[in-house]
Design goal:
Layout lengths: L10 H12 L9 H13 L4 E5 L2 H10 L8 E5 L4 H8 L4 E5 L13 H4 L4 E5 L10 H10 L3 E5 L7 E2 L2 E2 L6 E5 L12 E5 L2 H11 L21 H11 L2 H19 L5 E2 L7 E2 L5 E5 L7 H10 L5 E2 L8 H4 L10 H9 E4 L7 H16 L2
Parallel strand pairs: 2-3, 2-4, 4-5, 5-8
Antiparallel strand pairs: 1-9, 6-7, 6-11, 8-9, 10-12, 12-14, 13-14
Helix pairs in contact: 1-8, 2-8, 3-4, 9-13
Length: about 375
Amino acid sequence: MINVYEPAIGKEEIKFVLDAIKKGELSGTFGKYIDTFEKEFANYSGCKYGVAVSSGTTALHLAMSVIGIKPGDEVLLSASTNIATALSIVHNGAVPVPVDCEEETWNLNVNLIESLITKKTKAIIPVHLFGHPVDMKPLMKLANKYNLKVIEDCAESHGATYRKKITGSFGDMGCYSFYANKIITTGEGGMVVTNNKSLYKKLKILRNLAFEKPRFKHRLLGYNFRMTGYQAAMGLAQTRKLNNIIKQKIRVAHTYNKHLRDIEGLQLPVERKYCKNVYWVYGIVVLPSFGINRNELIKRLKNEGIETRTFFCSMSDQPCLKKIKGFKNIKTPIASKIWKTGLYLPSSHTLNNKTIEFIAKKLKKIKKTL
């Protein structure tokens, strides 16, 4: 089976992790690796500060908690995203408001934002889906106009750029995931990056149970969202490889484009001229003209030894969110459509061109039989 994704852990990661373990850098309260990883990754992301945490989900949760969200506040978010984005809003007492997608990039449609803003709207979470940046210039203009906080969900966009600026550095904070299938990994783990010193200080305190002085007297309600030292060691090694990983990600995507562009009925990923898409995964949408639906194509590819994954269910269609008091019945036709028609192909940056060509041939073979 050609897996959808396989992390690549090399000798550098093993060396750093072993060094961290030998030095006793186990829990996330001391040692050099956490501090070094935070500084190097934040710098890579175009930000002054980084706060390493236990996951991309807790990165979002922590970021939401420091912007003053109150129960009943509304937060706009990309309709097509992992449920973690919405959970960070809900678990902070606010109401998620989905913004539908663009047809081509599958990112939130900035043109729809203003019509969804109310007196209760306090923030927006744009998700740079599958590695393609959201159109941040008009989004930030709207955020400034209505005094909205912006938390970028960069779980899938490490190193992606919008008008030559790294995603995660536009808003108040950027939140990254280092889950095993992400562009770089620490196994589990995440990070919040920011250029705001005040927010940085709050993030640092709340991440670690809000310990201050005296140590066991707590002024704030904190969280245990710490990353371990040996996870940070792996993250540091991976960060130093990030440019090459992205280069290989782009190679994989361009090779797929070369072999799939002539297959009728497949919508391939795009790269807007003002962006660098880092292609976390190689997503396609199966159109009616292909001849079979997405689910049938998934079955046939599996029979050929090729693993796939579907796109995300729209936040407007999530049963758990519909139960929330104040959740609005907002239609997101494009996000709902690509949930039913989208899939992504094996996307490991270690895939060689021969394997990609094999996958493309199987797709062509399926198409010819229809």
